[in-house]
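Hey,

The postdoc asked me to send both predictions to you directly instead of through the lab channel. I've kept everything plain text so nothing gets mangled by the mail client. Protein one:
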Amino acid sequence: MLHGGIIEPSDSPWASGVVMVKKKKGPKMRFCVDYRPLNGVTKKDSYPLPRIDESLDLVSGSSWFSSLDLRSGYWQVPLSPEARPKTAFCTGRGLWQFRVLSFGLCNAPATFERLMEKVLASIPRQECLVYLNDILVQLHPDKCCFMRRELEFLGHMIGGEGISTLEEKVQAVRDWPTPTTLRDLKSFLGLASYYRRFVRGFSCIAAPLFHLQKKDCDFVWTQECEQAFSSLKKALTNSPILTPPDPKLPFILDTDASDVGMGAVLSQMGSAGERVVAYFSKTFSKAERRYCVTRRELLAVVKAIGHFRYYLCGLPFTVRTDHSALQWLMTFKEPEGQIARWLEELASFSFTVEHRPGSRHANADAMSRRPCALAGCQYCEKREAREAVISREEQSHTGESSWPVCRLVQGVDSTEWRAHQEQDVDLQPVLQWVEAGRKPEWGEVAGCSPGSKGLFEKFDALRLKDGVLQRAWKEPATGEERWQVVVPRTLRNSVLQGCHGAAGSGHFGVSKTLRRIRQGFYWGQLRRDVEDFCCRCDICTAHKGPPDRSRAELQQLAAGAPMKRVAVDIMGPFPRTNR
């Protein structure tokens, strides 16, 4: 380097250490300088570097590829005399400093990228891509490739069929030993995340591993972690070939959301059919998991469009979802709060929402509906417990006939039910009408009690089953038809006690008690009677009483000096009198 004019002797107050790093190929060593102390006090150059995914997308439509690896690019950029002393490094032969741009300086990549883009400004980016390569002076013949069908570029294998993972990097993931420390886990996830665009549902698969990286989580390698570790290595080994995007073809974005996370697939419809461009997945946070279904589905659309913004901005595209409510939600008038903010984000994109049945939406559905593999997930445990309670309650009512429900009224069979109905003043005329099979004229009903008149309005739904008057009723939630026994006054208190206060009834509130009674019973003004019974229940009053609203005792306020506390009574306004 001294004979080549790269370095020169130095008397600088700065001094950095030398580090020798083995090169990727061959036994040669790379000369590096540890400039971390210098970089810590350097004003950063924020010139943007090319994104890897952007560079890969520019190879769309190409069939032949060449790469030029050029020698010592940084050394073609001279340093100003004022900057040279700061690059000083110490060796066994004294202190030296660089005369040209050195590896390790934090602003070197941005400076070199700016220079290369100026040099190659006249060549279209689709024909020549620059990614911090060294391109002046001389070529490395063993690193140059000309007119290849497939070419290694930025850690990927690009070819005429599309973009795929690099075998040697996948092999490194495949042979990775089970992590035993947090540092090993972060290294593995860093390498695996490099290819996450190739893996469907990456975030859901790796959720247990990401959970171990949290600050409040102990590093305990569980069976779920081992399963996620193995699944991730298998998914990377069998990753598909992705198609570079073609701006001339329409984009299709399939989105889906589940209780665990969201997923999206960006694809294009070409002559060979629908080809995948990239995958996207993300697990929900604790707050997002509590969203309703429609809100989660809309959030999946917002996040997916934001993730693929580079592809979709300025182009019309189609969003396909299995949630039909999103079709009208996009044209929702006067939205508020969070929905309004999300719709405002989407307003800058030109797209249409297309509903697709879940049976045809498997590509995005599989990414979002992967079971939560997170051990001890409190949300999933609560959800499973809640679903189990609901399931038991539904099973207690599903497929019931009226008579098993009637057993809640102890010691009363069908014969006694009929006897009680015949003795009820409101039910006597109704039983005669139903037995005769004719609906009476209003003149016959006008002189009856209000209870009989109420049943007359429901005459078409009344039937005699096993000699007992019953009413046909449809469950509002499920549409299932049930038969309700018309309860006489003498047995109503027994029904209320059996559905609310009996052993195992739970002393539920008005809504649940009313829903339970309606499974098998009916009478006029049922809700009013349920409300009165629940309010008069001694057990409910003792355990579910109103909150304590007792006020604190009055106390004297200490005043240390005159006018420290001033009290004012405000009165008025007073009416104006004649005087």
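Protein two:
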Amino acid sequence: MANRKHVSTLLRNIYNLGRDVNAKFNQVWIYAGAMVIVTVPVLAWLTIVLSIDEPFCQNLLVYYGLNLIHVSEGQNCNFMRFLLIFIQFPVISMNTATAVLYVLLCCFSRNILKEYLSNGEKVSPLDCRSFKRYLIFYEQIFEVLSSLEASLSFPILLTVSNNCAFIFYCFMALDPFGKSPWPLAEHFYNFTTLTFLISLLSFLCVTLAASSVGDETKNAKQIQEKLLQRVLASTRKPDRDELMVLFVTHKRPAFTLTAWGFFTFTKGLILPAIGSISTFSLLILQIDSK
């Protein structure tokens, strides 16, 4: 409940900051995100229920029901279709909703930073007072990003970890090089392929969206330094010391989003992560094939 309040406050703060800098929030992104949250679990469910037959459903029912659930003959698939809704939907829906929410918040924050940079190039007249307002507004952005980190860094860690685990499992199950001694059952081929693509896209979208926020904060620091040089050049010498104190007082480092502090989201994370998963999967397949 507390985390829900934090997210609500975060959404309100992002909206207010966007309004202050005239940042545009495309509502199409919100509608598209809502469609993704609904569509992904439904597709995952359909890829299984449309490809299973009665004997396979009976085996699944024994597995999930611990041999304690018995239904009349010919009704195993109908019961499993109903049961899979409660098995699949909570996990897939939660992971998808977390990833979509995180990506949207990162994109909105990036848009705010872009408008902040654009406004910095148009500051006029450029004096100590306007420069101070510019620095104070960045502090507000910094606080919102800190709130984003505090509220969603742990959920996004679980989501990204889940994505990596699914990529690893699906890569081994699909066995693109024919190394596995236990080929994937044909009933799960469509589901495994879909899960692999969804997990990969989720990992890429989360990483790229989060890293774009860090890139914009680095650009913001460069703009602030350029503005400082311009203000110093047009300021009388007695006021320069006060200006430097102002800059140091309101100075904030570039902000990098993390997954609960375990790793930072940068574009350089993508290739090592995917390469490590692929290498380890091939190693396991090679060992199993011997």
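Summary for protein two, as requested: The chain has eight helices and no strands.

Thanks,
C.
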